[in-house]
Design brief:
The protein is an alpha+beta fold and 363 residues long. The protein has a domain at 1-50 and 106-178 and 259-330: FAD/NAD(P)-binding domain. 32% of the residues lie in helices and 30% in strands. The protein has helices at residues 18-29, 54-61, 65-69, 107-120, 169-173, 233-240, 284-301, 306-328, 333-348, 354-361, and strands at residues 11-14, 35-38, 51-53, 74-75, 78-83, 86-92, 102-104, 126-127, 130-136, 141-146, 152-157, 159-162, 179-193, 203-207, 214-220, 223-228, 245-258, 263-264, 267-269, 275-276. The strands form 4 sheets. Strands 6-5-14-15-16-13-17-20 form an 8-stranded mixed sheet, sandwiched between helices. Strands 8-2-1-12-19-18 form a 6-stranded mixed sheet. α1 links the parallel β1 and β2 (35-38). The two termini are 28 Å apart. Bound molecules: flavin-adenine dinucleotide. InterPro entries: FAD-bd, FAD/NAD-bd_sf, RIFMO-like.
């Protein structure tokens, strides 16, 4: 795998989100300056993830990202869980390897810090440049790009990495299937400011017997993100926080899909281009970062095992997030009973939930 002996591989990364930035950082840190393109004219300010796993902080630490921003992140210490408005559990989150399993921090701010670290290595994200097509031989991938000024460009590289999100053009250009299902529900996400959020709690779930759940988390002090597996999350949040000031609300759909393998010849897909899932398990961003760092290192070291490792980890994470979502959104009284008993016990014996937080930690 890789370019000729002793030569640095030429790599083009499509997508300036978390997975693309992570791959570019992983390579730049080892002295290989990749080209990274982003079709938007500037960084997207749409907020998505709020939970950054311990494993991601650990991976980003070697690029100088974590230590700069971790003091502003909120360690996950307690999460509170209600069912049909009855308090089921207030769970003290157990430490994993001596640290909180995750910190709350806005994805947009994390990506800005990653991009700054990348520019310190001398790599700048090229905004307004879009991938349009790829042809490949055994030796090379030849890629057509559309530039912001309307011109086009053709580049030749050893590896093309599609980090271009759920609707990946790179994935469809090389015909990698995206296998799975779409959840039926329409989801909504909103962010508010409030002074009424309880102290020392970082996440709250308000589940209902009809299967609709409100998932609240605190990406930064005084700011709360709500996700509902239904429409109308902002009004559900206003009911709980009458002082709410709405920052935004939008709808989205959720799928559970992944590629059978992330590689087709000289082309790879990572992050949401390779797997998507419910946001409930808080794993998409963390898996995207893991993919980028892991593939970057493997491409430079010629490690062929990476193809199976990427596929295996995605399969495991999707199993977990689907299980997690089914448990939270169940309408079965029997499953609700056992779920609630379990979390109620875990609130007095946090070690019972250690396996759960170990997965969340990504360690
Ligand atoms: C509401 C919500 C909440 C979430 N909460 C969490 C959470 O708490 N924890 C967690 O871990 N995950 C969470 N996620 C998931 C997480 O946000 C995603 O998994 C993550 O953003 C994936 O990163 P990515 O870089 O792979 O893709 P993206 O962030 O989608 O980035 C892809 C980039 O590629 C660019 N692009 C696309 N096509 C082209 C092209 N042709 N040429 C050039 N550029 C292109 C796009 O403009 C985009 O910038 C959440 C998601 C949502 C929707």
């Amino acid at each position: 795998m890789g370019s000729q002996l002793g030569q640095k591989p030429r790599i083009l990364v499509v997508g300036g989100g978390a997975s693309g930035l992570a791959l570019a950082l992983s390579c730049a840190h080892r002295g290989v300056l990749v080209r990274i393109i982003e079709k938007r004219p500037s960084r997207s300010l749409i907020q998505k993830a709020t939970g950054i796993a311990q494993g991601s902080w650990h991976q980003l630490a070697r690029f100088g990202v974590s230590e700069k921003i971790i003091s502003a992140a909120l360690p996950m210490r307690h999460f509170v869980f209600h069912d049909d408005d009855h308090l089921v559990a207030n769970v003290p989150v157990p430490f994993i390897q001596g640290k909180p399993p995750a910190y709350l921090y806005p994805q947009g701010s994390l990506e800005i810090a990653m991009e700054q670290a990348l520019s310190a290595y001398g790599v700048l994200v090229e905004y307004g440049v879009a991938f349009s097509a790829v042809e490949q031989t055994d030796e090379v991938a030849r890629i057509s790009l559309s530039l912001a000024n309307g011109n086009s460009e053709v580049v030749e590289v050893d590896w093309l990495v599609g980090a271009d999100g759920i609707h990946s053009n790179v994935r469809s250009s090389v015909g990698i299937p995206f296998v799975g299902k779409d959840y039926r529900e329409n989801w909504s996400v909103a962010e508010i400011s409030t002074q009424q959020w309880p102290d020392n709690v970082q996440a709250q779930l308000f589940l209902r017997s009809n299967g609709v759940g409100l998932f609240l988390s605190q990406p930064s002090s005084g700011v709360i993100q709500g996700i509902l597996n239904g429409v109308g999350v902002a009004s559900a949040m206003r009911e709980r926080f009458p002082d709410a000031e709405l920052h935004y609300e939008r709808g989205f759909r959720v799928s559970l899909r992944r590629v059978p393998t992330p590689r087709s010849g000289r082309v790879w897909v990572i992050g949401d281009a390779a797997h998507v899932q419910s946001p409930v398990g808080g794993q998409g961003l963390n898996l995207a970062i893991w993919d980028g760092v892991t593939l970057g290192k493997a491409l430079l070291e010629g490690d062929n095992s990476v193809e199976q490792r990427l596929a295996r980890r995605a399969r495991r994470v999707l199993l977990f997030t689907d299980f997690d979502y089914r448990m939270l959104a169940t309408r079965s009284n029997a499953i609700r009973f056992f779920r609630n008993q379990y979390w109620s016990l875990a609130s007095s014996h946090p070690w019972l939930a250690r396996w759960f937080f170990k997965i969340i930690s990504g360690i």
